[in-house]
């Protein structure tokens, strides 16, 4: 805790998954005052999602590998002075002092102020933030460990009940031990699919097939990255063995191109894809099922950072991640990031980056070289795992031909019910040549999810077929609310301390 | 929007037009606006004349363009919280009526008929049936398309210089991709109109005046008019660089309620200002208490092209033969676009001007002019 209630924390960590936990406990153990904010009631993030106590699951760890690493972080958190603010939905981070913007000029920070900016982390509390009170946490440094969300590519029928996100299906399983159906096809692209299929099968579901759009052979092209990351081989072998045991078939270079059913999923059509992910005519096969778990990998959740102007980089699989320096620093001084925000890489990488960031923030605050050996070791571990993640990402990048499986009637944006046909019309007839203009002219991405579901698809359609080999996510700087905020919460934000009375509304002429 | 209107009316007058933009269609202030077509906030004078002509033209355009532009003649409602405010509104409306604006006083007890969810206890207001709204980005895109083959779109190309003859007259523009030749060049660069004028070697003091719009989750039609408090008019007319906010609340065809409008001169800075959001939320929930329980899902900033006397620059620039200006409309560019386009087309084609453009002279700020 800071020395007094009005002092800012040394560090505010946003996200209590692997990266955030590691960053928070590391910084606290090095003597920093730390606040850890997360929207969930408990720590662990998406990866270590586990049932609430009330459900009484005896062994949540049965669904996780690597559980001891999380259990250790949790123990360190309990022993630490970290102020854990659960159920806090962070909607913005702003700079508090220095330039007179945000909440205005602050005075009286004395010696502390010379150490740089103070950040305000704005959150709302409550189950989904709807009835919450606004909370402002002030801190000298911010560590963004906000993780990722699942990337979806639309296809005919994807809005039918029974179609769930692959990551979502796993999250349901982990948090409540609920299955989305009895006979579940798992489809999309990315290493997560194997993990999802084996957890679903282990929990008792029948999984007739895993449909992977890319070819897995590509990993063989990166033997060095694999050899340097033996644990990934073990993981793959574990999933592979589980799938064999449950008689799950893996079909590569294929996609679910249509879902059948009236009220809910009854079957899916699986079609072979060419190298560009174009469906090959006449290869469609129907598979009966009552649910489809589908996902195309994960995309970094970086709205808080891009709203602050942090620089980004395109990743090998066409998402946008934060561009980070050797010590996990973003391009905005005082703002750090770890884990999936810097590119999808998994829980182990996230832990290493969290620890690295926590150590580096401490070194920065003390203003002197600090634990340099440890920092170098963490950097080596990070670089090795990043190398593997990039190789894998390149393998699962959606190829441009996937838009061929959209009919003009397919809803691309489900919040605003915008079809592929309307987006194509905006591109060809109205001159929308980029994702932002597509959004302006069609409303795709203006709804509740703010483009998280349809963003990739809109970009690909805007770019036109064949032109774009890789899809790039739309810039996030035009959606500065990371989560919806009730107007009552906005209205009760603290008034600025230094505002002159002559700037009050209606009296400035 | 202004550029699209200039292109449309010029093409209709038989000219061939190339529209050059460094971004996409509606990528600047148009795409960040609410699409207000207002007469209610304008005092009698040249801008109101322009607005009244535009109101007519927008009605005609709306008949011709597809319904997708979401033209809605929904009317505006200006409310006052106290008797003093209501008296100011009454005087203001009386002046406007002489200039041709329709304005009807709405007593306190009848406000509910127009807007059932307004806060109780307001002193009264004025209803302006001529106020309307369009979806500005779609309106601009469809207007360009309706202009037909005479208009050629060159998007993603930035003008980096003007081509001139030996005696200083304009003969085209230069972009990174090459030269484009034209006898006339129209500066419709909006908030960046001052920069464009500098390329032509002339001074036009256009400054960006930032505004934030708060967008709520989609709702059923609970706000029917464009509703704003009496302070708004004073804020629009203010010369202050400091932050001024006055809630303007309206529903949209698509469902979200839009809440504007803040004004501050901070350059081209999109940084989120929590103080702006706080004030907008306070004022909007004061007008419509139910909004307190509604969630905002997005906010965005845009830059109004501001000229010191709040009037646009429209017409030929006598300092550079062949150069015309159509910028500096502040927050009213979408509303004033058709009349501006018509004036520019007439200036180019030599037709009779529908109104006097003396007040919009681009040289009125020049030190020696």
From TrEMBL, chain A:
One of its GO terms (molecular function) is oxidoreductase activity. The keyword Oxidoreductase applies. Keywords: Oxidoreductase. Pfam families: Fer2_BFD, Pyr_redox_2. Residues 96-114 have a biased composition (Basic and acidic residues). Residues 412-457 form the BFD-like [2Fe-2S]-binding domain. Gene3D superfamilies: BFD-like [2Fe-2S]-binding domain, FAD/NAD(P)-binding domain. This is Oxidase. The lineage of its organism: Bacteria, Bacillati, Actinomycetota, Actinomycetes, Kitasatosporales. Residues 93-114, 487-509 are annotated as: Disordered. Residues 9-354 form the FAD/NAD(P)-binding domain.
């Amino acid at each position: 805790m800071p020395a007094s209630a009005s002092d800012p924390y040394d560090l505010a960590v946003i996200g209590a998954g692997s990266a955030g936990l590691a960053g928070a406990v590391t910084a606290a153990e090095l003597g920093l005052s730390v606040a850890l904010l997360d929207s969930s009631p408990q720590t662990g993030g998406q990866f270590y999602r586990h049932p609430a106590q009330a459900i009484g699951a005896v062994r949540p760890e049965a669904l996780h590998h690597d559980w001891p690493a999380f259990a250790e972080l949790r123990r360190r958190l309990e022993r630490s002075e970290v102020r854990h603010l659960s159920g806090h939905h962070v909607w913005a981070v702003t700079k508090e002092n220095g330039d007179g913007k945000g909440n205005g000029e602050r005075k009286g920070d004395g010696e502390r102020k010379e150490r740089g900016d103070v950040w305000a982390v704005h959150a709302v509390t409550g189950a989904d933030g709807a009835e919450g009170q606004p909370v402002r946490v002030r801190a000298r440094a911010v560590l963004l460990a906000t993780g990722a969300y699942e990337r979806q590519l639309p296809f005919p029928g994807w809005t039918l009940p029974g179609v769930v996100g692959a990551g979502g299906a796993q999250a349901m399983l982990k948090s409540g031990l609920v299955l989305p159906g009895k006979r579940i096809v798992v489809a999309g692209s990315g290493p997560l699919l194997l993990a999802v299929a084996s957890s679903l099968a282990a929990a008792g579901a029948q999984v007739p097939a895993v449909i992977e759009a890319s070819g897995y052979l590509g990993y063989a092209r990166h033997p060095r990255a694999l050899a340097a990351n033996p644990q990934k081989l073990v993981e793959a072998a574990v999933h592979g063995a589980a799938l064999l045991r449950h008689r799950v078939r893996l079909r590569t270079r294929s996609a679910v191109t249509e879902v059948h059913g009236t009220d809910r999923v009854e079957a899916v059509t699986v079609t072979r894809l060419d190298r560009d992910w174009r469906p090959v005519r006449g290869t469609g096969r129907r598979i009966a099922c009552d649910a489809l778990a589908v996902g195309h990998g994960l995309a970094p959740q970086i709205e808080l950072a891009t709203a602050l102007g942090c620089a980004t980089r395109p990743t090998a699989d066409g998402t946008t991640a934060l561009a980070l320096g050797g010590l996990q620093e973003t391009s905005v001084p005082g703002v750090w990031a770890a884990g999936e925000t810097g590119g999808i890489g998994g829980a182990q990488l996230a832990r290493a980056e969290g620890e690295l960031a926590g150590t580096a923030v401490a070194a920065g605050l003390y203003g002197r070289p600090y634990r340099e050996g440890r920092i170098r070791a963490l950097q080596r571990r990070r670089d090795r795992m990043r190398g593997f993640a990039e190789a894998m990402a390149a393998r699962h990048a959606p190829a441009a031909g996937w838009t061929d499986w959209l009919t003009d009637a397919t809803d691309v944006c489900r919040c605003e019910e915008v079809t592929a046909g309307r987006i194509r019309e905006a591109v060809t007839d109205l001159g929308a040549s980029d994702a932002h203009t597509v959004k302006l002219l069609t409303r795709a991405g203006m709804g509740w999810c703010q483009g998280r579901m349809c963003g990739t698809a809109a970009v690909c359609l805007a770019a036109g077929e064949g032109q774009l080999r890789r899809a790039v996510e739309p810039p996030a700087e035009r959606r500065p609310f990371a989560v919806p905020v009730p107007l009552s919460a906005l209205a009760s934000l603290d008034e600025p301390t230094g505002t002159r009375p002559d700037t009050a509304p209606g009296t400035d002429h | 929007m202004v550029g699209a209107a200039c292109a449309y009316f010029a093409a209709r007058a038989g000219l061939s037009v190339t529209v050059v933009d460094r971004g996409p269609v509606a990528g600047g202030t148009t795409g960040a606006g609410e699409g207000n077509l207002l007469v209610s906030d304008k005092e009698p004078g040249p801008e109101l004349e322009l607005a009244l002509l535009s109101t007519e033209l927008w009605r005609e355009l709306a008949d011709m363009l597809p319904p997708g532009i979401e033209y809605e003649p929904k009317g505006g409602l200006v409310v006052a919280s106290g008797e003093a405010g209501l008296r100011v509104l009454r005087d203001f409306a009386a002046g406007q009526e002489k200039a041709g604006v329709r304005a009807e006083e709405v007593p306190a007890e009848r406000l509910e008929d127009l807007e059932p969810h307004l806060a109780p206890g307001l002193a009264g207001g004025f209803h302006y049936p001529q106020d309307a709204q369009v979806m500005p980005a779609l309106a601009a895109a469809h207007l360009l398309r309706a202009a037909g083959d005479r208009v050629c779109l060159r998007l993603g190309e930035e003008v980096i210089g003007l081509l001139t003859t030996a005696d200083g007259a304009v003969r085209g523009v230069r972009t990174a991709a090459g030269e484009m030749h034209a006898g006339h060049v129209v500066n419709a660069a909006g908030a960046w109109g001052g920069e464009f004028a500098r390329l032509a070697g002339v001074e036009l003091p256009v400054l960006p005046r930032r505004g934030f719009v708060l967008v709520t989750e989609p709702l059923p039609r609970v706000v029917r008019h464009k509703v704003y408090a009496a302070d708004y008019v004073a804020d629009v007319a203010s010369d202050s660089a400091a932050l001024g906010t006055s809630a303007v609340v309206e529903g949209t065809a698509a469902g979200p309620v839009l809440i504007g409008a803040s004004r501050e001169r901070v350059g081209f800075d999109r940084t989120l200002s929590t103080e702006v959001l706080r004030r907008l939320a306070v004022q909007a929930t004061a007008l419509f208490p139910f909004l307190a329980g509604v969630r905002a899902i997005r906010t965005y900033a845009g830059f109004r092209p501001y000229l010191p006397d709040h009037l646009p620059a429209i017409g030929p620039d006598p300092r550079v033969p062949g150069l015309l200006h159509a910028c500096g409309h502040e927050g009213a560019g979408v509303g004033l676009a058709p009349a501006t386009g018509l004036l520019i087309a007439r200036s180019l084609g030599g037709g009779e001007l529908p109104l006097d453009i003396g007040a919009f002279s681009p040289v009125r700020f020049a030190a020696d002019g």
